[in-house]
Structures are given as C-alpha cells and as structure tokens.
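Repro:
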Amino acid sequence: MTTSWLHQPIKPISDAMAQTARDHFARLSGPPGALGTLEDLAARLAGMQHRADPDADPSQITLFFADHGVANAGVAGMSVDSTPGWLRNCLHGTSASAIMARTLGVRYEVVDLGLVHDPGPLPGLIRQRIEHGTTDFRTTPAMSEHQLTAALTAGREAVERAVRAGCRLFIGGEVGAGKTTSAGAVTCALLGIPPETIAGPGSGIPPETLAIKAKVMQNAVDHHQRFFSTPLDVMRRLGGFETAALCGAYVTCGQLGLTAIVDGFCASVSALVAITLHPPLKPWLIFGHRAAEPGQYAIFRSLDTRPLLNLDLRLGEGTGALAALPLIRTACSLLKTTPPDP
C-alpha cells in the first residue's frame, strides 16, 4: 500500500465556464450581484464541472468512525463506550445525518476505521479497521506510517466509490471519542497558535475541563515538534484515522474532479492539511458551516475563506455539510433558468 497517488496533480477548474455562469446572472432580472453567495457558488460549480449547467446530484456522504487514544486523558465528553452505539444508529437510519441524508436523497455510507470496541460485521457497514483507535499522542505518535497510509487510502476509496456511482458531490463526516482534542493539536501545530484559543467544548465538556484540554494539546505539540517536517508528519503524530481519511478524500476529489462540501471543525482540519499539501485544491472545497468550535475560525482566517452557514452546530457526522446542500442545489437551479430577452 503506497501513497504515490497523493502527489498526483489537482484537476484544473474552467475559468471560461465560471465566467459563463457569471454572464448568465448578469442577464437575469435584478441588480448585478444581488444573489451574492449563490452567484459565487454557481460560478464555482460551473468551473469545477466544466459545464454551464452544473448539478449537485447525485451526492454521497461517507462517515468515518474512529476513536482516539487521547480520549483517555479526560478531555472528551464522549466515551469510547458510546461510539459503537452511535455507529449502529447511523446504520439503522436514526442518527441526525442518516435522517438528513434520507430526506435529501443523498447516498449514505458508514465506515469503521478503528473504534476501540469493534462493533463487528453489521449490515451496511464498510469495515476498514486499522486498529482499535489511535495511540495516545501524549507520549507516542498517534499513527504509524502504515496506519496513516491505510487511513488516507480509505478516504480515497470512498471518493472512488462515489465517482463509480455517478456522484457529482462528496461529503465527508467523522465520529470518534477525542476527535476535537486531536484536531485542535493539529491546528496548533500547523498554524502556530496557542491551544487556549483553540480548545472548544467538543462533545460537551464543562468549562473547567477546557484548561486541561489546552494543556494536553500543548504538551503533545511540544513533545512531537521536532519531528514536524511536512503536514503529513503532523497528521501522523497528532491526527486520527478519520481526519486522515478525510484528507485523503479531499485530495482525491480535486484529482478526480468532484466537488466536496467540508463539514465542521475536524473536517476543516483535514481540509487545511489537504490544501497545504495541494494549494490548487482549495477551490474544490466548499466549507459548509461554521461550527461552535473556536479552532475552526482560525482555519477560516488562514485559508481566507468563509462558510455558507452559521448554525452553531457541533455534532460532526457531516450534518452541517448536509444542511448546506440545499443552498448548493439552489445555486445550480439558477443556472438552469432562461434569462429574459434583452
């Protein structure tokens, strides 16, 4: 198993088709630019799909489940004992993302990359288990080189399944105990900012635990700092199976020409790593929403981007990206409208 594919170029976007979309809006009734972000979205999608009438459908969401060794540090509101039940709820169609995906007609996948407690073979579950969660990064790298490769490849394979299914849009989601502590540490390492400005509530920790969470992140960054040569070094030492999979998925989206909607904080960390590896990838990623996690704001500033929605969501599971999908569909529909005669 190799990651040679990771270095393949990103597919170029058609500036001509993006301009065709802008010209279309100029011919619609109403003041120029009156549809704001919807016009920008439509132009981006036209450029990405190299067509004047882009479409957001069919779409696929893939949820990556994996626990983190750092969850044992008392920084996670969610226990590793609870994640298998969450996974089953997704498979049974009773989780928030499953309900939203069903309502929106989105193809739905659940992948187990490494929960601490193996849920076993279940109907509909894609088993790509790497290990029983990552290692506690306070003292050792979260992943081995082989494990990082396996996680990145799992993300690539999810996008390849979407392409084979004829999808035009990909959404990645993640679930796992300890994920925001891991994502926060990666953010601190990549952007060089103090953890006190990054540590957030995650799955519901009390305010007094935030200081502990920030200290854990700082100690981990300090411990591994001398080994950070590339963004993938940071991901391997501080990240998770699910965030590495999302990174691999986003890179593959750009390589294969598939639009991706980025979900909340953890997904944005994966996008940050992916864009750092491949700067031309940025236009392929639409940030769906601003989560209730301060670390995501720092990523938006670093990437000079803004999300479509601000709903104070902090669930993960791809819910914010799914909530943004109707806006993207609306932007596409506006390009199918016949402009009035001059």
